[in-house]
C-alpha cells in the first residue's frame, strides 16, 4: 500500500506546483518602451538632387593653319593662359622667303604697269594727231589693263603670304587652361594634323544634369503656384569627396526637347569656378558632381527625424502614438532631406508624436510606454 500512497502524494505536489506557476505565465508583459518626438513645423529649403557633369563654357582646339615644323612650345601643360598669349611657333623661313619673292614680283609688275601707261599716253597722242590707227590705242589700253591685273594678283598673293606667316604663330584665342601638348618640337604638322593642344575656359563653368519630364513639370507647377520663376532656383554642388562646393549658381538653360530614350530634359546652370588655397580651380571640365537644386527662399514644412521613418513594400510610414498610448501606423509622403530630418508632405499633423527609438519592437495597435526624446542641445 505504500507505493500507491507515495504516487498520490507526488501527483498532488506536482499539481500544486503547476497551479502556482500558472499565474506567473498568465501575467501580462509590460508595454515596450519607446522614445517619441513631436512633429513640428520648421523653416526648410526644399531641394532635389541630380547627377550632373561640369562643362566648360568654351573649349577650343589649337590646330596648325599652315604646314611646317614646330619650332617652339611656349606654354606649360595645364597652365592658365590669357587671350593673345603666344603658345606655339612654326618655322617662319619658308613664308618669309615667299613674301620676299612676291614683293620682287610686285616691283617688276609695277614697272610693267608704268611702261604700259606710258604706251597708252603715247598711243592716245598719236591717234589724236591721226598719226596712228585707233587699233594701236586699243592694244595699248589692253596691255595696261593686263599689267594692272597682274599687279593686283601679286598684291593679293602678298597679303596671303603675310597671312600664312602670321599663322606660324599660334596664340590663345581666349582665357583658359591649356591641356597636353600632343606633338613634339620638331614634328612636321599640317592643317589636317591632329589638334596640337586644347584650351578649356575656366570661369564660370556650366553644370548640366538630366531631369525627368515629370519632375520638370512638378517644379514648374510648384513655382507657378508660389508665384515664382522656376529659373530662380539656386544650384549647389556636392563634389566627388562629399563636400559641398562653396559657390552657388543659377539655371540659365532648359533644353527644348525631351530625350526619346530616357524621357529626360537637360537642364544647365552657370556657376563660378573659384580657387583653393593653392590657387587651383575646384571645378574641372567633364567632372561628375551632384547638383542640388534649392528654392531661393525657405518655406514652412513638417519635419521628422529619419529614424522615425520605416519603409515596406507599400512605401514609407511612421508609427504615431495617440493620446491613449497606442501605436498607429501612418502612411506618409516624403519631401526633401534636411540633414538628419526629412520633410513630410502628407500624412502627419503638427503636434503628433512619432516613435524614433524602439520602432522595431512595436506592432500597430499595441500600447507603448512613452518617453520623450531629448531636445537638441540637451
Structural description of this entry:
This protein is of the alpha+beta class. Among the domains are: 33-44 and 301-372, conserved putative lor/sdh protein from methanococcus maripaludis s2 fold, CATH 2.40.420.20; 48-57 and 203-294, Elongation Factor Tu (Ef-tu), domain 3; 92-166, Helix Hairpins (Orthogonal Bundle), CATH 1.10.287. 28% of the residues lie in helices and 34% in strands. The chain is built from four helices and 24 strands. Strands 1, 18, 19, 20, 23 and 24 form a six-stranded mixed β-sheet that branches. The model has no long low-confidence stretch (mean pLDDT 83).
Structural topology:
Layout (H helix, E strand, L loop, with lengths): L1 H25 L6 E6 L1 E5 L2 E10 L2 E4 L5 E6 L6 E2 L4 E5 L2 H36 L5 H33 L2 E3 L4 E3 L9 E2 L7 E4 L4 E8 H13 L8 E5 L10 E6 L9 E8 L16 E7 L4 E7 L4 E3 L2 E7 L5 E5 L1 E6 L2 E6 L6 E5 L11 E4 L6
Parallel strand pairs: 1-24
Antiparallel strand pairs: 1-23, 2-17, 3-12, 3-16, 4-11, 5-7, 5-10, 6-9, 7-8, 9-11, 12-15, 13-14, 13-16, 14-15, 17-22, 18-19, 19-20, 19-23, 21-22
**Overall radius of gyration:** 43 Å
Q: Detail the poorly predicted runs.
A: none
How much of the polypeptide forms β-strand, as a percent range? 25-35%
Fraction of helical residues: 25-40%
Secondary-structure element order, as H and E?
HEEEEEEEHHEEEEEHEEEEEEEEEEEE
CATH fold-level assignment of the domain at 48-57 and 203-294:
Elongation Factor Tu (Ef-tu), domain 3
The number of helical segments is: 4
SS class? alpha+beta
Number of strands: 24
How would you sum up the major sheet? 6 strands, mixed
Terminal-residue CA separation = 76 Å
